[in-house]
Structure prediction request, 234 residues.
Amino acid sequence: MGKLLYEGKAKQVLEGDNENEYIIHYKDDATAGNGVKHDQFEGKGVLNNTISCIIFDMLEEAGIKTHMIEKLNDRDIRVRKVEIFPLEVIIRNITTGSFCKRLGAPEGIVLDEPIFEMSYKNDEYGDPLINDDHAVALKLATREELAYIKTTTLKINELLKAFFLKFNLKLVDFKVEFGKTADGEILLADEISPDSCRLWDVDTNQKYDKDVFRQDIGDLIETYKEVLARMQGK
Ligand code: 5GP
Prediction:
């Protein structure tokens, strides 16, 4: 294994075989509320890596440019090296979570059109919501880069909604991250898993995502296993 370059809450980034690549290693940790709640769940890293790789493969096939090169094993993937934009890029299809808390909106309203949001990835300031003007002023991204990120994220939303619907799951909302290669190409990076998406059963609205941990309402591993089983047609 290469040298550890960065350790996040749920993943490690390691040196790759050459200067244009990284290895990402999935850990079993789960955090919520900006790290206030923290626990370990045996097998979570394997589940998230497996789920995320299936989704990234699907998105690549549909024409979305991602950092994925190949899955190495249960916990490790080879990716193209990018510098991550310090932005949490969020789409909401159904109201819940911080949207309802912040605006006093009722939970569970199906939105006529998706809401696009960005937060500044900054733990010290609690990942505050920002708009394009803020992001440009702080030099987090250019207007052209932000336009590409928004268009691509809306496409990803359509692809993910249709994908999860096949497994009787509604895509309520999700967070993605983008990065830039040394030659300026923008790629979808990080992961897409039940850690970063809210998924509700179409018939019962049962939650199949990290909210079971955030809200202490279910077994995280059993929940993520069920998502993967549905994706594998089991
Ligand atoms: P909310 O803003 O309602 O808390 O979250 C909106 C969506 O973005 C949810 O699907 C949630 O899982 C995802 N999300 C927001 N912040 C984070 C984060 O820091 N990490 C991860 N993995 N997902 C996040």
User: Anything to note?
Assistant: The longest strand covers residues 169-180.
